[in-house]
């Protein structure tokens, strides 16, 4: 597992590490203190992935459509 700051990770990196965290916790062969640390890291990774997905959804929602039904451009998301 990485010690990279979660906020510096791409969506793909965070998902890959989250998958590793879940696998380790599911195996159940991790000491209690390590399990707590893994759970906290997993929660941070999950929140980061949710933020990244929300940002992507907002960008997609802001694609404007012209009168002919084709994409006419984009507008900045209101956050």
Written account of the structure:
The chain is mainly α. It is 59% helix and 9% strand. It has two helices and two strands; from the N terminus they run ααββ. It has helices at residues 11-27, 32-61; strands at residues 63-65, 71-74. Strands 1-2 form a two-stranded antiparallel ribbon. Helix 1 (11-27) packs antiparallel against helix 2 (32-61). The longest helix has 30 residues, at 32-61. The relative contact order is 0.13.
Cα-to-Cα separation, first versus last residue: 33 Å
Major sheet characteristics: 2 strands, antiparallel
Order of SSEs? HHEE
- How would you state the average pLDDT, rounded? 88
Number of helices: 2
Q: What's the alpha carbon Rg, rounded to whole Å?
A: 18 Å
Widest sheet: strand order? 1-2
Write the topology of this structure.
Blueprint: H1 11-27, H2 32-61, E1 63-65, E2 71-74
Antiparallel strand pairs: 1-2
Helix pairs in contact: 1-2
Which terms summarize this structure?
mainly alpha; 2 strands; 79 residues; 59% helix; two-stranded antiparallel sheet; rod-shaped; single chain
